[in-house]
Amino acid sequence: MTLSEIASARLPGLPASAYGMAKRARAAGWERRAGMSRPRKAAGGGLEFSIELLPAEARAEIVRREGGNIEIDESTVAALTLRTDDSLSATERERRDARLHVLAMFDAFRREKGLTVRDARVLFSAGYTAGAMDTPEWVRNAISSLSWRTLESWRAILRDHGADALGLDRRGRPAILDKAADGKAKTVALAAIAKQEFLPAKDLGAYLQTRFEAELPSSLSVRTVQRARVQLEARNRNVLMKLRDPDGYRSKVEFAATNATFAAGLNDLWEFDASPADVMLKGKKRHSIYLAIDVWSRRTKITVTETPRADAVADLNRKCLLAWGVPNRIKTDQGSDFKAKATARLMTALGIEHEICDAYDPTSKGTVERAIGTFQHDLAICPGFIGHSVADRKKIENRKAFSRRLGMDEEQLFEVEMDLPEFQAWCDTWTDEIYGQRAHEGLRRSTPFLKAASWQGDVKRISQPEALNVLLAPIVGKNGIRTVTKKGIAIGREHYQTVAAWPGDEVFVRQDPTDLGRALVFSLDGETYLGDAICPPLAGLDPVEVAMRVKAAQKAHEKAGVAELRKEMRAIGPRDFMNATLGQARKKAATLTYLERPAAPYTTPAIEAAQEAVEASRPDVPAYTPEQRAQVSAAVVPMPTKRPAPQSTPEQRFRRAIEIEAQIERGEPVNMDDEVFLRGYRPSSEYKGWLRVFEQRGPGMFAG
Questions:
Q1: pLDDT digits (tens, 9 = 90+) for 646-668
Q2: Burial classification of residue 286, based on how many CB atoms lie within 10 Å of its CB (0-12 exposed, 13-18 middle, 19 or more buried)
Q3: What dihedral do alpha carbons 576, 582, 584, 586 form, nearest 10°?
Q4: If you count Cβ atoms within 10 Å of the first and of the last residue's Cβ in the chain, which end, N or C, has fewer?
């Protein structure tokens, strides 16, 4: 349009005179805009200007005057849209269908007006944005405004990539990182932002270009990396949270196993856990708490300790066992205090099943975890409360101005007033009177006290608490095993005298928690009580008197054995060992035969001279006549051939041995073969094994 035609059209936002339009064109530099003006084709000369230079409202008015309602063949549009046989999501499919509809409207507008694509796209986009086009509501909801550049981009996408590409919100083409290296670049980019959440886009792009130099273009822009990163983080939000913030993922995203911990009744399942208490006690120490909870009734018990250790677990077990009874199962984590040998030995002795949760999986014992959280929140009312986190602690510190807290120690800052016994008493009150009387949603608004009281079944209780004290007594050393020496049992730097075991024996030892001078001696498996061990200085006894009593008990114990051994020693003759050794050697040699190898005659002059001397000194013996040889042969008495001894079984050999021993005990004579057999058979492992069976079962073992 010429400047005169624009002025005469009286378009909104433009002057209505030719002079005014000329002034506007000079001020805006229309003539200098490349491709926006051309010489007028009609007579009169001058320039024609592209309608792209006109304001949007002026272009929209032109569309209205020309008639913006375009009739579109809906069947043609429907043939391109409303398809479901694709890999697009519902949102992408809706976006594709709306854009295809707009492109169909544009083609119809251009054909009806007889415009070039360049002129038609400017007028159509302006009319669409101004609402001059009769557009279906669902299309208008998806595309509220339109520019000619966006329209041209859609036409290029449809031409180069097909209709489905219009539904992708990536300017019609897959992201570079999605396709590079068969998707490996996308995985590496995701791993990079998972490892370093604050990695800048330019550094991420440099890293990817270094890893995939051949697959990625050298002109990879920062903006491309930023768009790809936004899409990766949106699509993999949960995965990234699990890698960046595992605790946040567990609390916000991971499906909660509601009511996954099942307890069939009272004392069916107990859960144990430990945690540092969010309160400071006197001495500037933050102690630890051990909490036990009965899952069915939600009853709790707490033990406070300066440091986590197995003794605290034993103390909490004792408190629960005496107050509640014996459970069927307990569940703990993999802490060294819960897996200690003392804890495992107690569970085995009481017949309690010990379940150990997987590492770093607090949800498997969520009941006790939740109880500890409730306890920690209730600590806010206690003096010395230091907050649940570093941020909470900072807020508490900021309650006092910096000038006031300068030089103030932690006890003054946090107003510490409680010591360990007072805090333990408060914990006991909390478990019994606060938490135990509080209504719980998990108990259907009942309290742990009422829930436990409603149990109608049996409760297993330990009738003798003293026996429990012995089971909970601390073991000495790491494993409680000690070897008795001539000085007794060494515990620390002291020696404990005992007659429950003898020097050389290995025993299992517990320290009496109420008497430092007394130790409890058990068999090596810890199941048989053997007696006590006493340290005279610590027990307040006379060391000489204790030593004399121990020696007397040892002498009495060994007296019977020594007398029997001396009797056997007298029965052993001075030549018995030599004869036994020679007899065994002959028996072994009798089973071997040496085959003579062919020999070549060997002689020397000295051997020949010696042989002549032997023959010269040999007396002449007349040879036997046939009659004499027959008489000698008839006089020889044939010896009976010795039958081979039948193969005997282990049972037969042991039975023969005890029969020989019975003959010896009765004083009956024993032949040489039986005596040799018995002396060689007694040291064998076969004899010792059968003897243990014979001592238990007696002669009845041969009944079968």
A1: 557 888 888 888 888 888 888 88
A2: middle
A3: -150
A4: C
- 238 and 343: one domain? no
CA distance 223 to 226: 5
Over residues 461-499, the pLDDT tens digits come to 877 777 776 777 777 877 778 899 888 888 888 889 888
Instruction: For residue range 60-92, list pLDDT tens digits in order.
Output: 777 777 655 555 555 545 445 555 566 677 788
Tell me what pLDDT residue 703 has: 65
**Residues 377 and 497 placed together within one structural domain of the fold:** no
Candidates 384, 441, 438, 442; CA nearest to 413 is 384
* Chain Cα centroid distance, residue 162: 50
Closest residue by Cα to residue 368 from 331, 396, 398, 402: 331
Instruction: State the pTM of this model.
Output: 0.47
Residues 209 and 314 in one domain: no
Q: How many other CB atoms are there within 10 angstroms of residue 177's CB atom? A: 29
- 446 and 508: one domain? no
Report percent pLDDT > 90 for the chain: 4
What does the alpha-carbon distance between residue 114 and residue 439 come to, in Å, rounded to a whole number?
A: 81
Contact 661, 678 (CB under 8 A): yes
Q: Is 701 left (phi over 0), alpha (psi -120 to 50) or beta?
A: alpha
Confidence of residue 401 (pLDDT cuts 50, 70, 90): low
625: three-class secondary structure by DSSP: coil
Last residue of a domain, one of 252, 282, 308: 252
- Residue 612 pLDDT > 50, yes or no? yes
Mean pLDDT, the chain, rounded, equals 78
Please enumerate in sequence order all residues whose Cβ is within 8 A of that of 533, keeping only pairs 6 or more positions apart, or say none: 488, 489, 496, 497, 498, 500, 509, 518, 519, 520, 521
Domain range spanning residue 658? 650-702
State yes or no: pLDDT of 640 exceeds 60. no
**Residues 109 and 186 occupy one common structural domain:** no
Tokens of 644: 């081979």
pLDDT confidence tier of residue 382, bands split at 50, 70 and 90: confident
Domain membership flag for residue 15: yes
Decide if 57 is inside a domain: no
Max CA distance (Å), the chain: 177
CA dist., res. 166 & res. 143, Å (int): 13
Domain count, the chain: 6
* Shared domain check, 318 and 444: yes
pLDDT 10s digits, 293-324:
999 999 999 998 887 777 788 888 888 988 89
Single-letter residue type at 348:
T
99 and 242 both lie in a single domain: no
**Residue 695 Cα distances to 311, 663, 681, angstroms:** 43, 18, 17
Identify the pLDDT of residue 181.
72
- Give which of 132, 143, 145, 148 is closest to 100, Cα–Cα: 143
Instruction: State how far the Cα of 669 lies from the Cα of 371, in Å rounded to an integer.
Output: 82
Q: Examine residue 623 and state whether it is found in any structural domain, yes or no.
A: no
Could you tell me what percent of the chain has a pLDDT over 70?
82
Over residues 178-184, mean pLDDT: 74
Three-class secondary structure of residue 58 per DSSP? helix
Q: Answer with the one of 109, 143, 167 that is the final residue of a domain.
A: 167
> Whose CA is closest to 304, among 471, 428, 389?
428
Torsion-angle region of 630 (φ positive above 0: left; ψ -120 to 50: alpha; else: beta):
alpha
Claim to verify: residue 305 and residue 449 sit in the same structural domain: yes
Residues 134 and 148: their CA atoms lie apart, in Å, by 18
pLDDT for position 642: 46
